[in-house]
């Protein structure tokens, strides 16, 4: 199974997607499964993991409705109010749908120390009890805090989104590599090679610029804990879907067939239990 492990759907409104600023105006429109289907077909991908883009339960339920109607959506990573005392009941309702695979909170937008909060960690323990994945969305500067967070939940499956969003300019920053390697020492953490092109200043990228970043995460996590994600439609401000996929395929060209299979789908299928 070949899987895009990270993409989004939305019905655009300026109020709900205020983070889509003027430089990103090209994606100020609706993006729905019929828009994605021909891109998956062109790249011979079997399906996707749809990930939250708004921190609302309404969006989580909507993504599950889309998944029920469109078989290309193999799983949903939604948002739930993890810090609220009743989150267990909310999760019990959601896991009745087998397409509900995990939870994400936009930690990159939170202050330092957010991942230390007892109420948030109690919510993550509820995720663990239900066998769900937690997607880690952090900036590179938050990796040390993320490692301490992961250590509090040794039985939880984690996925690091977007290689922790280092600034992609020149060779990989030493501080990012050190923190990434340290996080990767935790065997319950996998990583998505996604959201990279939009971290390049002015979005002017080449495959040669990105390859050292791929090699860094491959060395840190290995193919069994590394997965391809498009971050579509956000990626469109910097790259068409096919161009980004071709770049990742080229990065994997020297690997064995089984290693390529893991990165292009097998890892996602195993981690999210598709």
Protein topology:
Elements: E1 3-7, H1 33-42, E2 47-51, H2 57-69, E3 73-78, H3 87-94, E4 100-105, H4 118-129, E5 133-136, H5 143-151, E6 157-160, H6 174-184, E7 189-193, H7 207-221, E8 226-228, H8 241-251, H9 257-271
Parallel strand pairs: 1-2, 2-3, 3-4, 4-5, 5-6, 6-7, 7-8
Helix pairs in contact: 5-6, 6-7, 7-8
How is this structure best described in words?
- The protein has nine helices and eight strands.
- The protein is of the alpha/beta class.
- The chain has a single domain (3-271), classed as TIM Barrel (Alpha-Beta Barrel).
- Helix 6 (174-184) runs parallel beside helix 7.
- The model has no long low-confidence stretch (mean pLDDT 97).
Task: List the defining traits of the structure above.
274 residues, alpha/beta, TIM Barrel, 8-stranded parallel β-sheet, 8 strands
| Spans of at least 5 consecutive residues with low confidence | none
- Please name the CATH topology: TIM Barrel
Name the overall outline. Answer: globular
Q: Which structural category fits the helices and strands?
A: alpha/beta
- Helix fraction, binned, reads 25-40%
CATH architectural name: Alpha-Beta Barrel
Average pLDDT number? 97
In CATH, the homologous superfamily goes by the name Metal-dependent hydrolases
Instruction: Give a count of the beta strands, DSSP E runs of length 2 or more.
Output: 8
Cα-based radius of gyration, to the nearest Å: 17 Å
Distance between the termini: 9 Å
Tally the helices: what do you get? 9
Summarize the structure.
This protein has 274 residues and is α/β, with parallel strands linked by helices. It has helices at 33-42, 57-69, 87-94, 118-129, 143-151, 174-184, 207-221, 241-251, 257-271, and strands spanning 3-7, 47-51, 73-78, 100-105, 133-136, 157-160, 189-193, 226-228.
